[in-house]
Amino acid sequence: MKYKKLFVLVFGLFSSQWLFGQKRGVDGPNIVLIIADDIGWGDIGFFGNKDVKTPNIDALGASGLAFKNMYVTTSSCSPSRCSIISGRYPHNTGAPELHDQLPDDQFMFPERLRNMGYYTALSGKNHMGGAVKKAFNLISPGKGPGGEEDWVSILKARPANKPFFLWFAAHDAHRDWQTNDKGVVYDAEKLRVPPMLYNGMETRKDLASYYHEISRLDHYVGNVVGELKRQGILENTYIIFISDNGSPFPRNKVRLYDSGVKSPFIVKGPGVKVGETEGLLSAIDIAPTILEIVGLKKDERIQGTSFLSLLNGKQHSTRDFIFTEHNWHVFQGYERMVRYKNWVYIRNGFPERRAMAGESSKLFPAGKELWEKHEQGLTKKNQEDIFLMPRPAEELFNVAEDPLEFTNVATVAGNKKMLSYLREAVDRWIMETGDSKPKNPTRDRDDIDGKKLPGEWLKGERPGEANKASRMNRPGPVLKKDIKMKEPV
């Protein structure tokens, strides 16, 4: 009799937990994560661009919380996306370089949502490999030139009795450009040219095509919001907008300047405070935040920190440090960056090399024009960064005074204490997360003309591989208290 009562008690406990889980799943908030491709922080109207037309994204920003200091973990497509889905730094995911596939044993927050009872779907750019199949009920390659044309149909076809998480990943605005009637056609002659680029007609045409694809993505963002309204579920849905890295132009994509790793980031949803915040965020913070939103505990493998309290209007800092990394992306690279307050410190592991990317080669119009004008002696100082060889081993910038990071102040005597402090932060992050500079790094795949180099090309040693960093979970410094060195005044 005693065992029978115990069985009834245990069965009842598990039954109540199962029922609660089912009820919680049915009643949970919906989440739509929209990931733009290669769109820089300053290339959205809401974030200050006066040329590009993005009324729908601007409306999200005006009705949600817009973050002015969200950083992706790397300015490289697939490693950035692997960081978002896992909440881990690239060298900790086991997929730190372009086209690396996320290992099957890595954590993925949509898998937790699916197991909880959420309907999960991915449409558009995957770029993370086959491991993500277990995280989604549906995976679609997307439709149309930007991959967004099935987003509304997925919303319409979703199961009616489940909350949903949708990973909508556009191909806009990624080269090569494709034009259709869903984006604005821009007059190249009327566009303002960023100062790191040569102000010539080929660059202007390149920018016009880039802005067209941004406007096309904006069109589909509006369609998604409209469908959520039509279904009467907008008020119970979080919409998160982010880009995977900076714009595909010289000195932007792949690089660790704000033009490469700072992302437009907006969250709109239930209880989200409307406004703007200067708080520092990392893309690895998205996973733990979404888990907290739906009531799930943070997985021990996640290195990010939830910022749900910021969404709810509490103005305390969730982190003092941001770390980003540059690894192989067509060209060899190993750079590490930390941001603290208004200071950005970059350490270059290969100072003897140019900091190259496909977008800064002669392969695409803006890069080609920049190279041609440089060879003719017509470029300005702020346009010549990609030609430097050797490069500084260390760079230091005050982004409050120098937002485009054109003036390296690492050698200024008055910055000595800050330089030492940020060196310590990077050293500690490297040590605690198991990062390592490859001894046999992946070599360049292409030359500056964008042509494949001769001979067999193979991937080399990955960053962190020597220390088995893919099995390490420590996040490195997050708050000032994590650094033993005294904070500079």
CATH topology of the largest domain, by name, is Alkaline Phosphatase, subunit A
Q: What is the oligomer described by this structure?
A: single chain
Radius of gyration: 23 Å
Class from secondary-structure proportions: alpha/beta
Largest sheet: 8 strands, mixed
Unreliable residue runs: 1-26
Q: Averaged pLDDT, please?
A: 94
Number of strands: 12
CATH architecture identity of the largest domain: 3-Layer(aba) Sandwich
- What strand order characterises the main sheet? 4-3-5-1-6-7-2-8
Distance between the termini: 71 Å
Classify the helix fraction into a percent range: 25-40%
Q: What is the count of distinct domains?
A: 2
Q: What is the CATH H-level superfamily of the largest domain? A: Alkaline Phosphatase, subunit A
The CATH class name of the largest domain reads Alpha Beta
Shape: globular
Describe the structure.
The protein has twelve helices and twelve strands. The chain is 28% helix and 15% strand. It has two domains: 29-317, Alkaline Phosphatase, subunit A; 325-482, no CATH class. With 489 residues, the chain is α/β, with parallel strands linked by helices. The strands form two sheets. Strands 4-3-5-1-6-7-2-8 form an eight-stranded mixed beta sheet, with helices on both faces. Strands 9-10-11-12 form a four-stranded antiparallel beta sheet, covered by helices on one side. Strand 9 (321-326) and strand 10 form a beta hairpin. Mean pLDDT is 94; it is low at 1-26. The N and C termini lie far apart (71 Å). Helix 6 runs parallel beside helix 7 and helix 7 runs antiparallel to helix 11 (365-375).
